[in-house]
Amino acid sequence: MTEYGKPVPVADADSAPFWEGCTRGQLLLQRCADCGAIRFPAAGICPHCRATGAEWITASGRARVYSWIVVTHPVPREIYADDVPYVVALVELEEGVRMATNIVGCDAGEVRADMEVEVTFDEVAPDVVLPRFRPRGG
Ligand code: ZN
User: Fold this and answer.
1) What is the pLDDT of residues 20-43, one digit of tens each?
2) How far is the CA of 38 from the centre of ligand 1 (A)?
3) What is the pLDDT along the chain (138 residues), one digit of tens a residue?
4) What is the 98 CA–ligand 1 centroid distance (Å)?
């Protein structure tokens, strides 16, 4: 926990480049050096061809809402009471992988399936930047 007061991601060896990219305003994805498949979340071994080599590419930041929920009951209450309602979504990036995130920049009730969204970077604490998505062009 940080002074942000909420749980934050903890980078590991595989995901560290992703989180470092977020601090620079870049959405990075790991691409298999062998078969070219995008690995998200980042992993040491490609789930498609089992190769270990990889490179990092910058994603377009464009996505569509695949699925979502509107959180109205804060759990735990002492941490999220001021945030509800908020949207937890699975978005499908143009690069073909799905990412769990929040939809921001619109009312929770406005989120729709297949809605076009784009990444926005939220610095929630020093060196902690979360990729969230907002309506595209909004
Ligand atoms: Zn591969």
Assistant:
1) 999 999 999 999 999 999 999 999
2) 8
3) 567 889 999 999 999 999 999 999 999 999 999 999 999 999 999 999 999 999 999 999 999 999 999 999 998 999 999 999 999 999 999 999 999 999 999 999 999 999 999 999 999 998 899 999 999 985
4) 17
CA of 46 to the centre of ligand 1 (A): 5
Q: CA separation (Å) from 129 to 1, 6, 56, 86? A: 14, 13, 18, 18
Distance (Å) from CA 91 to ligand 1 centroid: 22
Residue type, 92: E
Structure tokens at 99: 């990412």
If we measure between CA atoms, which residue out of 123, 101, 97 comes closest to residue 111? 101
